[in-house]
Amino acid sequence: MKQNIIEMKGISKSFDGNCVLDNLSLNIKKNEFLTLLGPSGCGKTTTLKILAGFEVADKGEVLFNGNDISSLPPYKRQVNTVFQKYALFPHMNVYENIAFGLKIKKTPKNEIDLKVKEMLKLVSLEGFEKRSVESLSGGQQQRVAIARALINEPEVLLLDEPLGALDLKLRKEMQIELKRMQQRLGITFIFVTHDQEEALTMSDTIIVMNKGKIQQMGSPEDIYNEPANAFVANFIGASNILDGTMLDDFKVEFCNNTFVCVDKGFKQNELIDVVIRPEDIKIVAADKGMLKGTVKSIIFKGVHYEIEVEEGNNKWIIHNTKFAEVNSVIGLDIYPEDIHIMRKVSNNE
């Protein structure tokens, strides 16, 4: 089992009386790619800044390899940070930007040359040593920023939405590149994003945050397939979320129908949220379905159609490879294992 490299215990932080982090605790393992994911204002960037030493928590402690580093300044921590804006030095060329940290440490020139060469190879920028950073594309500038951070051999690399300024195609390419680098280097990456696809693509572990609290922590598969509550289900991908009643173990009522499910351990007649992913709804003939609805719109998405269906007072989103005519009536089938039952969460949680 991998050892924890970072432990955050009971971290709270407020700005101008506004609570940004509320008694947050988490463990980060060595050599993992961990992503802090959530909407704007959820506390993910503040968490990263506290890890880096740019912010100090009001309460709680940060342990690094078992040692309390809560009061250590950033330059004494074995972490480096890559920001969205990269913060490169425009008056320096690529070589000088990457070598900057080692020059500050008065590292011998021959050692600097060797390490810069290694970094350029790692980020696929060999031959760019003398180029002005202002002449580079966004993706190339990002690679320089990563190389500059990695050349100092940190045990942990913090990345604060570093792909946000890139176009879609380049962003997808860099997702794969970052994961490749992390696996090759074998160091811990802590990545901040509000982009669900980025988190699912790159992460070993995802932490979903909202209002300064952790909503769920787990693998991408767990977060997507077994969301802990309606917030997580709604934030990670598209979901149909309906009011329901848990009649008994393995039996739930919603949309005025009783369905078999695979969940248990709820109170009898407990009010719950029912979560069903759009791709888990089967389209059948109107007289064959568990539910029946009218197609209100259909949009071609490339690999599937996104179909909006009105069923009673409910609106369903369905992802299916079958085409359905607008205003046609279709049947909907839902298998027990595709019905996810969530306890109701108050607005304050």
Automatic annotation (TrEMBL):
GO cellular component terms, alphabetically, are: ATP-binding cassette (ABC) transporter complex
- Its EC number is 7.6.2.11
Mind listing the GO molecular function terms for this protein? Answer: ABC-type putrescine transporter activity; ATP binding; ATP hydrolysis activity
**Keywords from the named record:** ATP-binding, Cell membrane, Membrane, Nucleotide-binding, Translocase, Transport
From the UniProt record, list the reaction(s) this protein catalyses. ATP + H2O + polyamine-[polyamine-binding protein]Side 1 = ADP + phosphate + polyamineSide 2 + [polyamine-binding protein]Side 1
Enzyme class, one word?
translocase
Q: Superkingdom of the source?
A: Bacteria
Every ABC transporter domain range = 6-236
Extract the SUPFAM superfamilies matched here: MOP-like, P-loop containing nucleoside triphosphate hydrolases
Per the entry, what this protein does is:
Part of the ABC transporter complex PotABCD involved in spermidine/putrescine import. Responsible for energy coupling to the transport system.
Member of which family?
Belongs to the ABC transporter superfamily. Spermidine/putrescine importer (TC 3.A.1.11.1) family.
What PANTHER family would the database entry show?
A: SPERMIDINE/PUTRESCINE IMPORT ATP-BINDING PROTEIN POTA, SPERMIDINE_PUTRESCINE IMPORT ATP-BINDING PROTEIN POTA
Quaternary state and interactors: The complex is composed of two ATP-binding proteins (PotA), two transmembrane proteins (PotB and PotC) and a solute-binding protein (PotD).
Protein name as catalogued: Spermidine/putrescine import ATP-binding protein PotA
